[in-house]
Design goal:
Order of helices and strands of chain B: HH
Strand order of the largest sheet of chain A: 1-3-2-8-10-9-16-17-13-11-12
Number of helices of chain B: 2
Radius of gyration of chain A: 20 Å
Number of strands of chain A: 17
Strand content of chain A: 15-25%
Number of strands of chain B: 0
Largest interface: A-B, 42 and 32 residues
Oligomer: heterodimer
Shape of chain B: elongated
């Protein structure tokens, strides 16, 4: 497919609203592309319900009824989101035995209420424990820009489906980087909003202290639009904020905004492409100052302890009775996590507060901080180690090197795509103070307008 | 940690150093898990990795007054 033939979510909604196309034509095209794709993004395709919803959208438009801002836009969700009538797999074989969900996850319901049309569920690492989307039960989801490489994870299906132009909008979840890592490796935008900003109700959790949900898209406008309709209090998620939502402004006016580059931990072990992408973004935003988020390596370790402890506790009964049904890539890590002493976990939680306080202070003097999303472009699917700064590192855990300290304290982060000609895409994280997603949208709009970030559909 | 030598494949039962294999085996029983022998090495390796990751967090001094946030507010 040609790059120009694939509309963003906002462009699609506009074209349908103006009668240039129909929701049925858009959804039919999406279903055909999903069917023809060999990227293994989808684990469930909801063709009949999607076509019925599209017909209803077209009927409403012809009848002059009001249409939502995302009317007719096809979307898909990581398969840990509840979809009424469908079993929520969360990337596992074990969950196949569960009954179908009785209602949609809040995020799914809110996108549908805005007019978007759900076309299916997307592949992921088992129980969201991974950065690769290489799943023993459902296969790997390769990178649309180079199918010999990983799409990243754990929301790999969500990022790859957008990068391949199968759908313009998807949802994923992020505990340690699972939205930002695949967004970077697949060359799309991925937003991990402030912890508690968006309801996780009806999403199969991994580590509740750190779990977030958020959207993927190929434009800042699409991310902002999805974020806007996903906001709102939800009594079904105990950590969901009751703060009023925001109406994102996409002015790109960064005058007066204090933008700095994260040094220390965030300046270690990058490849030249990643360093070059960060420099390009920093130049475009006029960022020259460096800031230090103190003890970020320790923050990364503490995030791991919390994730492993909570994830293993969540799955303990299944580990006791269905151990051999786990993906072998997650099994041993879940088991090891079950043996973490409570004092280690509590120390990690107390350290989390210490680190939060330090970073809160830092945000007195800065509005947006820049950092790489991953240390490298997408590794090969079979690759286990990589050389960085003269050291041999394990690929899989190292992909979260820059993302884990930030989700640890719930900061809003938008990974923006940078694509150099002839090279694989990489990502740069825009990081703001809690609840200041607006600053992310402003900075990202400036980058998009300057042509520094872009998200071309993969040419396959 | 007291070594349970009867279950330990370790040779040196009198060593005062921590024996991860014993700890993992005993914890496996405590948590009513059943790990096949051929999979035990992978679990031990993963727990050793957790120990390495945990150490800098455990080494970091925190004041008694610093409590974790029961409801986390970023």
């Amino acid at each position: 497919m040609s790059e120009a033939s694939v509309l963003t979510a906002s462009q699609t909604a506009t074209a349908i609203r103006q009668g240039e196309t129909t929701a049925q034509a858009v959804v039919k095209t999406a279903l055909d592309q999903i069917q023809a794709s060999n990227l293994n993004c989808f684990t469930t395709v909801l063709a009949s319900s999607a076509l019925a919803a599209a017909a209803e959208t077209d009927r409403k438009r012809l009848a002059g009824e009001s249409l939502g801002p995302l009317a007719g836009v096809p979307f898909a969700v990581k398969n840990l989101f509840d979809i009424a009538g469908t079993v929520t797999l969360a990337g596992s074989k074990i969950n196949r035995a569960n009954p179908p969900a009785t209602e949609d996850a809040t995020a799914v319901a809110r996108l549908k209420a805005a007019g978007a049309i759900l076309v299916g569920a997307l592949n992921m690492d088992e129980y969201a424990y991974g950065f690769v989307t290489v799943n023993e039960h459902y296969g790997a989801t390769p990178n649309p820009h180079d199918p010999t490489r990983i799409s990243g994870g754990s929301s790999g299906g969500s990022a790859a489906a957008v990068a391949a132009g199968l759908v313009p909008l998807t949802l994923g979840s992020d505990t340690n980087g699972s939205i930002r890592v695949p967004a970077a490796l697949c060359g799309v935008y991925g937003l991990k909003p402030t912890y508690g900003r968006l309801s996780r109700a009806g999403a199969f959790l991994f580590s509740s202290s750190l779990d977030h949900i958020g959207p993927f898209g190929r434009s800042v406008e699409d991310i902002a639009q999805a974020f806007q309709v996903l906001q709102g209090a939800d009594h079904r998620d105990p950590i969901c904020s009751d703060r009023p939502g925001i109406a994102p402004v996409l002015s790109g006016e960064i005058g007066g905004m204090r933008i700095a580059i994260a040094a220390g931990h965030f300046a270690q072990t990058t490849t030249p492409t990643v360093a070059q992408a960060l420099e390009k973004v920093a130049d475009a935003l006029g960022a020259t100052r460096n800031v230090i988020l103190p003890e970020s390596a320790r923050a990364r370790s503490a995030a791991y302890l919390i994730t492993a402890s909570e994830g293993s506790q969540l799955h303990l009964a299944r580990l006791q009775t269905q151990l051999q049904d786990f993906d072998s890539a997650t099994r041993d890590r879940f088991l090891a996590g079950a043996f973490i002493p409570s004092s280690w976990y509590i120390q990690a939680q107390r350290f989390r507060r210490w680190y939060r306080d330090q970073v809160r202070d830092l945000f007195q003097t800065v509005d947006v901080i820049l950092a790489p999303t991953t240390p490298c472009p997408a590794p090969l699917i079979e690759q286990t180690t990589m050389e960085l700064d003269g050291q041999t590192m394990l690929v899989r855990p190292h992909l979260g090197f820059y993302t884990q300290p930030l989700s640890f304290i719930g900061l809003p982060v938008l990974s923006v795509p940078v694509c150099f000609p002839g090279e694989l895409p990489v990502g740069v994280q825009l990081i703001a103070r809690p609840y200041d997603e607006q600053s992310l949208f402003t900075a990202a709009t400036a980058l998009e307008q300057a042509g520094v970030t872009r998200s071309p559909v993969a040419a396959i | 940690m007291t070594h349970q030598s009867a279950d330990s494949p370790a040779e040196n039962h009198s060593a005062p150093t921590f024996d991860t294999v014993v700890y993992v085996q005993q914890s496996t029983q405590l948590l009513q898990l059943s790990i096949p022998p051929e999979q035990m090495a992978g679990v031990v390796e993963n727990f050793e990795r957790v120990q390495t990751i945990a150490q800098p967090v455990l080494d970091f001094p925190l004041p008694d007054t610093l409590e974790a946030l029961p409801t986390f507010e970023p």
